[in-house]
């Protein structure tokens, strides 16, 4: 395991959001991983911060609300099949670790595991969260992403407390 400076490879991390990366959560003995394509990396409150946006309908949202922490695993090799499963199936219905042949690996600084062998890992502790406020959203983007029904995102601003490559 090689420690890395997450901010120094910020552009690589942002580029990886397209096609997408894994966001893993754990709470009350359950672990789950989902795919995210939106996120940001930068400095806030003088700390390296990863910001994720998770819709309230996700099982991951439930776990994240309980644990206040998550990990991000960024594939450095082809994990298309696992990304497909984890981005379309819910941990409410299936165990995605079994379905996508993923192995949890203990985190270094937090209780949430990372995905063994995926590549680059960020361990993140939530410093601030904010439910999106519909009235604050640009009208066209609101229509495009949320329509009438909602399913709004919660934004999680999380300190990157460990970052390393396997
Ligand atoms: C390419 C891609 C990017 C995605 N990005 C996000 C995201 O940033 N936030 C989010 O809430 N869901 C996102 N999703 C959807 C979730 O990964 C998907 O709904 C998943 O099944 C949720 O799993 P869960 O219910 O186990 O948490 C994305 C899906 C794909 C395929």
TrEMBL record:
Range of residues in the leader sequence: none
Cross-referenced InterPro entries: Flavin_Rdtase-like_dom, Flavoredoxin, Split_barrel_FMN-bd
Ranges annotated as spanning the membrane: none
UniProt xrefs under Pfam families: Flavin_Reduct
Flavin reductase like domain boundaries: 20-148
Listed SUPFAM superfamilies: FMN-binding split barrel
GO terms of molecular function: FMN binding; oxidoreductase activity, acting on the CH-NH group of donors, NAD or NADP as acceptor
Gene3D superfamilies assigned to the protein according to its UniProt record, in alphabetical order: Electron Transport, Fmn-binding Protein, Chain A (2.30.110.10)
Family affiliation: Belongs to the flavoredoxin family.
Family annotation (PANTHER family): FLAVOREDOXIN-RELATED-RELATED, HYPOTHETICAL CYTOSOLIC PROTEIN
Name the UniProt record assigns to this protein: Flavin reductase (DIM6/NTAB) family NADH-FMN oxidoreductase RutF
Annotated organism of origin: Pectinatus brassicae
């Amino acid at each position: 395991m090689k420690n890395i400076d997450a901010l120094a490879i910020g552009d690589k991390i942002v580029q990886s959001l397209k096609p997408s990366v894994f966001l893993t959560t754990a709470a009350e003995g359950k672990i789950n991983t989902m795919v995210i394509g939106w996120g940001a990396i930068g400095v806030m409150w003088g700390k390296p911060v990863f910001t994720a946006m998770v819709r309230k309908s996700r099982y991951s949202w439930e776990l994240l609300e309980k644990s206040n922490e998550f990990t991000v695993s960024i594939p450095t090799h082809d994990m298309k099949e696992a990304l497909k499963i984890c981005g379309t199936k819910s941990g409410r219905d299936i165990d995605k670790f079994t379905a996508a042949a993923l192995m949890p690996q203990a985190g270094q600084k937090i209780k949430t595991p990372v995905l063994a062998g995926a590549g680059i890992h960020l361990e993140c502790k939530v410093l601030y969260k904010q439910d999106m406020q519909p009235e604050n959203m640009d009208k066209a983007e609101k229509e495009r992403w949320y329509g009438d029904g909602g399913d709004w995102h919660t934004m999680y601003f999380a300190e990157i407390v460990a970052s390393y490559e396997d």
